[in-house]
Amino acid sequence: MEKHRLSHLKKLEAESIHIMREVVGEFDNPAMLYSIGKDSSVMLHLALKAFYPSKPPFPLLHVDTTWKFKEMISFRDTRIKELGLELLVHVNQEGVRQGVGPFSHGSKIHTDIMKTEGLKQALNQYKFDAVFGGARRDEEKSRAKERIFSFRDAFHRWDPKNQRPELWNLYNARVNQGESMRIFPLSNWTELDIWQYIFLENIPIVPLYFAKKRPIIERDGMKIMVDDDRVPLREGELVRYESVRFRTLGCYPLTGAVSSTADTLPDIIQEMLLTKTSERQGRLIDADQSGSMEKKKQEGYF
Fold first, then answer.
1. How many helices (H) and strands (E) does the chain have?
2. Residues 69/218, Cβ–Cβ less than 8 Å
3. What residues have CB less than 8 Å from 194, skipping those under 6 apart?
4. Would you say 229 and 253 are in contact if contact means Cβ atoms under 8 Å apart?
5. Residue spans of alpha helices (H) in 180-253
6. Cα–Cα distance, 233 to 284 (Å, whole number)
7. Distance (Å, rounded) from C-alpha 168 to C-alpha 147?
8. Dihedral, CA atoms, 126, 115, 225, 88, nearest 10 degrees?
9. Where does residue 244 rank: exposed (0-12), middle (13-18), buried (19+ CB within 10 A)?
10. Residues 3-55: tens digit of each pLDDT
11. Residue-wise burial string across 49-59, b where 16 or more C-beta atoms lie within 10 A, e elsewhere
């Protein structure tokens, strides 16, 4: 008799779906952070599967820094309308009033105010007790320390030295009033897993992931796409067109493109099989201070 065996990706899918159902069963007011990137797209696809034929029993939350790529916002609005889901968009209006931006204030201040403080404002406003995020352990070393159910205190702070054990996939969902949990259902996935799953499940993603000739400038060792007229050119800088794509997406002034001709999913997967660099090498916020990501997470960053 032929034994039924799950493939590697089916095992990951089953684990993620189990985590999502566990959260809905254990928490009163969960939400899913939707950053519009490839991991968010996979996480949303898994949520649709987990609760089918009903829609996911929680809203999506997007913390908009006002500096995302135009194609990301267009994709977000189209996708949410197609699926008929509830989307909450939060902007730190105090940061907008102060004119905070990545060019005028630098990556650290911009990220602290528009992303971290914006996220904490939204969590306080809606009183979510659990929030899904698409982070994976293979992305960056501080993310490798995170539990799947990652505890946050009443001030949304993370203590990497005081985490709860997770033995045999047993998750501790207990929180007191005001405390919350960050949930990472994609923790055990790799970047290559994500791309293979997107290909096999035909999941829609932002076109910026596919190579195309785009307007860029070279700055501080990064290829920055000129996405709108807010880019102040430095002396000697010239905008040129080059075939590039993005391995990760965020605020466009802080996200470096990579030279590539991979304009299909099989080409991207082939590129992933050969690459020896981290996908987050092009994210300026990961390196704008010593121990950058871990410090940001301790202060409330996702």
1. 10, 10
2. no
3. 38, 39, 42, 136, 186
4. no
5. 191-201
6. 18
7. 13
8. 0
9. buried
10. 667 799 999 999 999 999 999 999 999 999 999 999 999 999 999 999 999 99
11. ebbeeeebebb
Which among 163, 57, 180 is positioned nearest to 123, based on CA atoms? 180
**Residue 190 CA: distances (Å) to CA of 18, 149, 161:** 18, 18, 24
Q: Please, which residues have CB within 8 angstroms of residue 250's CB and are 6 or more apart in sequence? A: 35, 37, 68, 283, 285
179 compared with 6, residue with greater pLDDT: 179
167: its two tokens: 């033995």
Going by the DSSP 8-state scheme, the letter that residue 233 receives in this structure is P
Tokens standing for 20?
């999502």
Alpha-helical regions (H) of 27-66: 38-50
Nearest to 39 by CA among 172, 160, 188: 188
- Supply the pTM of this predicted model: 0.92
CB 209 within 8 A of CB 245: yes
